[in-house]
Structures are given as C-alpha cells and as structure tokens.
Amino acid sequence: MRGTLCYVAPEYSACGYLMEKADIYSLGVLILVVVSGRRPLHVLSSPMNLEKANLISWCRHLAYAGNILELVDEKLKDDYNKDEVTLCINLALACLQKMPELRPDIGDIVKVLKGEMEVPALPFEFSPSPPKFFSKSRRKHKNNED
C-alpha cells in the first residue's frame, strides 16, 4: 500500500489491511480537497487556525456545527452553487465514515452525482442535530410520575 497518509482509510492504519471500501474513503478526501482548494493536511502559520490544519477533522467539525459551506475555497467568494457544493460535501462525509460498511457503494456515488439518487443522509457522527437519548435521570423522573 502506498499513498498520501491523509487519503488512506482509517482501517488500514489501524489494522494494516485494506477493506473493500478503502477507495471510497479516499474519494471522500479528494472531494473535500477539490471543494476547499487545499491539501488534506496543511500546516498553518497561525496558531489560531490550528483546528483547520486537518481538512477531514475540520470538515467534520463544521458539519457537526451545521456550517459546512465555510469549507468552500475562499477564492470562489460567493460565486458557486451552494446546493451543489452542499451535496458534494455531504457525499464526501458519507464516504469518510469510519466504518467501511457504512460508506456508500461507487454505483450509488455515481447516481448521486448524476442526480439520479438523493445524497445519503448526513451520517449520525457528523449531524448537527443527532437524535436525543434519554438520560437515566430523566427515566427515573418519568418512573416517579407513574
């Protein structure tokens, strides 16, 4: 296996072997590189921008905050189609899921890009509003009301 570190799927670095959808992970990284106009790992001179150094982590952070369009290359200013960029970033996030079996198949990716299929829902791990789970204290409170 050869390649740039940031393009390699996490299961390879963890286990030392490639799974079927490792290339899908790399495609997700490539999509983010194209949208952002920068490298996946970029050493910045300003310590204030350290969270932006790792493109994938930064994108995940922006998705969780519900602000993914901040990722778009600043050189574009506002001269781009926001719907298409949002689709591309969400597709990249679907490709970047840590568990390979949750990543989309290449056929589905092609259908999404052709407009023949909706982009998969934003993965739970990146969602700005993940489903709420009841805490133990809330369950106790509800049981006391009964």
Automatic annotation (TrEMBL):
Q: Membrane-crossing residues?
A: none
In terms of InterPro entries, this protein maps to: At4g25390-like (IPR044576), Kinase-like_dom_sf (IPR011009), Prot_kinase_dom (IPR000719)
Q: Where is the composition biased (Basic residues)?
A: 135-146
In residue numbers, the region (Disordered) covers 127-146
Tell me which residues make up the Protein kinase domain.
Answer: 1-122
By what name is this protein known? Receptor-like protein kinase
| Classification lineage | Eukaryota, Viridiplantae, Streptophyta, Embryophyta, Tracheophyta
